Amino acid sequence: MTETTPAAALDVEEAGAVLAAEAARFASFGWMRGTSGNLSLVLSREPLRLAVTASGRDKGELTSADVVVTDGQGAAVGPGRPSAEAALHARVVRLTGAGAVVHVHTVASVVMGQRSPAGIPFEGLEMLKGLGHPTHEVSVTLPVIANSQDMTELGDRLEAALQPGMPAVVVAGHGIYVWGADPREARHRAEVVEWLLELELARR
Length: 204
What we know:
Shape: globular
Radius of gyration: 16 Å
Strand content: 15-25%
Family: Belongs to the aldolase class II family. MtnB subfamily.
Number of strands: 9
Protein name: Methylthioribulose-1-phosphate dehydratase
Distance between the termini: 30 Å
Structural class: alpha+beta
Keywords: Amino-acid biosynthesis, Lyase, Metal-binding, Methionine biosynthesis, Zinc
Helix content: 25-40%
Oligomer: single chain
Strand order of the largest sheet: 3-2-1-4-9-8-7
GO molecular function: methylthioribulose 1-phosphate dehydratase activity
Pathway: Amino-acid biosynthesis; L-methionine biosynthesis via salvage pathway; L-methionine from S-methyl-5-thio-alpha-D-ribose 1-phosphate: step 2/6
Protein backbone atom coordinates (compact mmCIF):
# COMPACT_ATOMS: atom_id res chain seq x y z
CA MET A 1 0.00 0.00 0.00
CA THR A 2 3.02 2.28 0.10
CA GLU A 3 3.50 5.16 -2.31
CA THR A 4 7.04 5.29 -3.66
CA THR A 5 7.29 8.88 -4.80
CA PRO A 6 8.17 11.36 -2.03
CA ALA A 7 6.23 14.57 -1.69
CA ALA A 8 7.90 17.62 -3.14
CA ALA A 9 9.18 20.16 -0.65
CA LEU A 10 6.82 23.14 -0.54
CA ASP A 11 6.47 26.02 1.84
CA VAL A 12 3.12 26.68 3.45
CA GLU A 13 2.06 29.44 1.07
CA GLU A 14 2.90 27.34 -1.99
CA ALA A 15 1.04 24.40 -0.51
CA GLY A 16 -1.94 26.62 0.21
CA ALA A 17 -2.02 27.81 -3.38
CA VAL A 18 -1.92 24.24 -4.65
CA LEU A 19 -4.70 23.13 -2.32
CA ALA A 20 -6.83 26.18 -3.20
CA ALA A 21 -6.57 25.34 -6.90
CA GLU A 22 -7.41 21.69 -6.32
CA ALA A 23 -10.36 22.60 -4.08
CA ALA A 24 -11.73 25.00 -6.69
CA ARG A 25 -11.64 22.21 -9.27
CA PHE A 26 -13.51 19.77 -7.02
CA ALA A 27 -15.99 22.46 -5.96
CA SER A 28 -16.74 23.13 -9.64
CA PHE A 29 -17.80 19.47 -9.94
CA GLY A 30 -20.20 19.87 -7.00
CA TRP A 31 -18.10 17.54 -4.86
CA MET A 32 -17.41 20.08 -2.07
CA ARG A 33 -20.73 21.82 -1.59
CA GLY A 34 -21.11 24.39 1.15
CA THR A 35 -17.96 24.10 3.21
CA SER A 36 -17.75 20.30 2.97
CA GLY A 37 -14.69 18.23 2.15
CA ASN A 38 -11.02 18.76 2.84
CA LEU A 39 -7.63 18.32 1.20
CA SER A 40 -4.13 17.83 2.52
CA LEU A 41 -0.56 17.89 1.25
CA VAL A 42 2.57 16.59 2.96
CA LEU A 43 5.08 19.35 3.72
CA SER A 44 7.73 17.17 5.37
CA ARG A 45 8.21 13.57 6.50
CA GLU A 46 10.59 14.01 9.44
CA PRO A 47 8.85 15.34 11.36
CA LEU A 48 5.58 14.66 9.56
CA ARG A 49 3.85 17.93 8.73
CA LEU A 50 0.76 18.40 6.57
CA ALA A 51 -0.89 21.42 5.04
CA VAL A 52 -4.65 20.93 5.50
CA THR A 53 -7.47 23.10 4.22
CA ALA A 54 -8.87 25.31 6.96
CA SER A 55 -12.20 24.43 8.57
CA GLY A 56 -15.42 26.21 7.68
CA ARG A 57 -14.28 27.75 4.38
CA ASP A 58 -16.10 27.66 1.05
CA LYS A 59 -13.87 25.31 -0.93
CA GLY A 60 -14.55 27.15 -4.16
CA GLU A 61 -13.16 30.38 -2.69
CA LEU A 62 -9.99 29.31 -0.89
CA THR A 63 -6.81 31.36 -1.09
CA SER A 64 -3.24 30.36 -0.34
CA ALA A 65 -3.79 31.59 3.22
CA ASP A 66 -6.66 29.18 3.92
CA VAL A 67 -4.44 26.35 5.07
CA VAL A 68 -3.33 25.06 8.47
CA VAL A 69 -0.15 23.14 9.28
CA THR A 70 -0.70 20.00 11.34
CA ASP A 71 1.52 17.37 12.86
CA GLY A 72 1.49 13.64 12.21
CA GLN A 73 -1.59 13.25 14.41
CA GLY A 74 -3.58 15.98 12.68
CA ALA A 75 -3.20 18.57 15.45
CA ALA A 76 -2.50 22.17 14.46
CA VAL A 77 1.08 23.34 14.99
CA GLY A 78 0.46 26.86 13.77
CA PRO A 79 -2.35 29.41 13.58
CA GLY A 80 -5.80 28.49 12.35
CA ARG A 81 -8.15 25.55 12.76
CA PRO A 82 -7.78 22.59 10.40
CA SER A 83 -10.61 20.39 9.27
CA ALA A 84 -11.94 18.11 11.99
CA GLU A 85 -10.84 15.23 9.77
CA ALA A 86 -7.17 16.29 9.65
CA ALA A 87 -6.34 13.39 11.96
CA LEU A 88 -7.66 10.92 9.40
CA HIS A 89 -5.61 12.57 6.64
CA ALA A 90 -2.53 12.15 8.81
CA ARG A 91 -3.44 8.50 9.47
CA VAL A 92 -3.77 7.83 5.73
CA VAL A 93 -0.37 9.40 5.11
CA ARG A 94 1.26 7.34 7.85
CA LEU A 95 -0.33 4.11 6.60
CA THR A 96 0.24 4.53 2.87
CA GLY A 97 3.15 6.95 2.47
CA ALA A 98 0.88 9.18 0.37
CA GLY A 99 1.87 12.76 -0.39
CA ALA A 100 -1.66 14.13 -0.73
CA VAL A 101 -5.15 13.14 0.40
CA VAL A 102 -8.52 14.16 -1.06
CA HIS A 103 -11.81 13.94 0.82
CA VAL A 104 -14.94 14.87 -1.11
CA HIS A 105 -18.66 14.36 -0.62
CA THR A 106 -20.18 12.95 -3.80
CA VAL A 107 -23.69 11.65 -4.28
CA ALA A 108 -22.49 8.45 -5.94
CA SER A 109 -20.15 7.59 -3.05
CA VAL A 110 -22.89 8.09 -0.47
CA VAL A 111 -25.49 6.06 -2.37
CA MET A 112 -23.13 3.22 -3.28
CA GLY A 113 -21.72 3.11 0.25
CA GLN A 114 -25.26 2.59 1.57
CA ARG A 115 -26.09 -0.04 -1.04
CA SER A 116 -22.84 -2.00 -0.77
CA PRO A 117 -21.62 -1.85 2.85
CA ALA A 118 -19.34 -4.86 2.30
CA GLY A 119 -17.40 -3.12 -0.49
CA ILE A 120 -17.85 -2.30 -4.16
CA PRO A 121 -16.12 -4.62 -6.68
CA PHE A 122 -14.92 -3.49 -10.11
CA GLU A 123 -13.64 -5.74 -12.85
CA GLY A 124 -12.57 -5.56 -16.49
CA LEU A 125 -12.78 -1.78 -16.83
CA GLU A 126 -10.30 0.30 -18.77
CA MET A 127 -10.56 3.11 -16.23
CA LEU A 128 -8.86 0.89 -13.65
CA LYS A 129 -5.61 1.79 -15.40
CA GLY A 130 -6.10 5.23 -13.84
CA LEU A 131 -5.46 3.63 -10.44
CA GLY A 132 -2.09 2.29 -11.54
CA HIS A 133 -3.08 -1.11 -12.91
CA PRO A 134 -1.20 -2.13 -16.08
CA THR A 135 -4.28 -3.65 -17.71
CA HIS A 136 -8.06 -3.62 -17.50
CA GLU A 137 -7.99 -7.36 -16.77
CA VAL A 138 -8.02 -6.95 -13.00
CA SER A 139 -10.54 -7.18 -10.19
CA VAL A 140 -10.40 -4.69 -7.32
CA THR A 141 -12.70 -3.78 -4.46
CA LEU A 142 -13.39 -0.31 -3.16
CA PRO A 143 -13.73 -0.70 0.63
CA VAL A 144 -16.68 0.76 2.50
CA ILE A 145 -16.41 1.56 6.20
CA ALA A 146 -18.97 2.77 8.72
CA ASN A 147 -18.81 6.43 9.64
CA SER A 148 -17.77 7.75 13.05
CA GLN A 149 -17.14 11.16 14.55
CA ASP A 150 -14.19 9.64 16.42
CA MET A 151 -11.22 9.98 14.05
CA THR A 152 -9.22 7.32 15.88
CA GLU A 153 -12.04 4.82 15.49
CA LEU A 154 -12.57 5.83 11.87
CA GLY A 155 -8.85 5.51 11.23
CA ASP A 156 -8.84 2.00 12.71
CA ARG A 157 -11.67 1.03 10.38
CA LEU A 158 -9.85 2.50 7.40
CA GLU A 159 -6.63 0.67 8.27
CA ALA A 160 -8.46 -2.65 8.57
CA ALA A 161 -10.26 -2.12 5.26
CA LEU A 162 -7.35 -1.09 3.01
CA GLN A 163 -7.25 -3.07 -0.23
CA PRO A 164 -4.27 -3.67 -2.57
CA GLY A 165 -4.56 -1.71 -5.78
CA MET A 166 -7.29 0.59 -4.46
CA PRO A 167 -6.03 3.94 -3.09
CA ALA A 168 -9.43 4.95 -1.77
CA VAL A 169 -12.07 4.20 0.86
CA VAL A 170 -15.76 5.08 1.00
CA VAL A 171 -17.10 6.25 4.35
CA ALA A 172 -20.74 5.21 4.38
CA GLY A 173 -23.19 8.08 4.40
CA HIS A 174 -20.32 10.55 4.14
CA GLY A 175 -18.00 10.50 1.12
CA ILE A 176 -14.69 9.19 -0.16
CA TYR A 177 -11.04 9.47 0.78
CA VAL A 178 -8.53 9.08 -2.04
CA TRP A 179 -4.76 9.49 -1.93
CA GLY A 180 -1.72 9.69 -4.17
CA ALA A 181 1.95 10.55 -4.29
CA ASP A 182 1.14 14.23 -4.96
CA PRO A 183 -1.95 16.43 -5.43
CA ARG A 184 -2.14 15.76 -9.16
CA GLU A 185 -2.13 11.98 -8.72
CA ALA A 186 -4.61 12.19 -5.84
CA ARG A 187 -6.89 14.33 -8.02
CA HIS A 188 -6.69 11.95 -10.97
CA ARG A 189 -7.40 8.99 -8.75
CA ALA A 190 -10.36 10.76 -7.12
CA GLU A 191 -11.81 11.45 -10.56
CA VAL A 192 -11.33 7.82 -11.60
CA VAL A 193 -12.90 6.45 -8.41
CA GLU A 194 -15.86 8.78 -8.76
CA TRP A 195 -16.30 7.69 -12.40
CA LEU A 196 -16.34 4.06 -11.27
CA LEU A 197 -18.92 4.85 -8.60
CA GLU A 198 -21.12 6.72 -11.05
CA LEU A 199 -20.89 3.81 -13.49
CA GLU A 200 -21.91 1.31 -10.83
CA LEU A 201 -24.76 3.55 -9.70
CA ALA A 202 -26.03 3.80 -13.28
CA ARG A 203 -25.81 0.02 -13.70
CA ARG A 204 -27.97 -0.60 -10.67
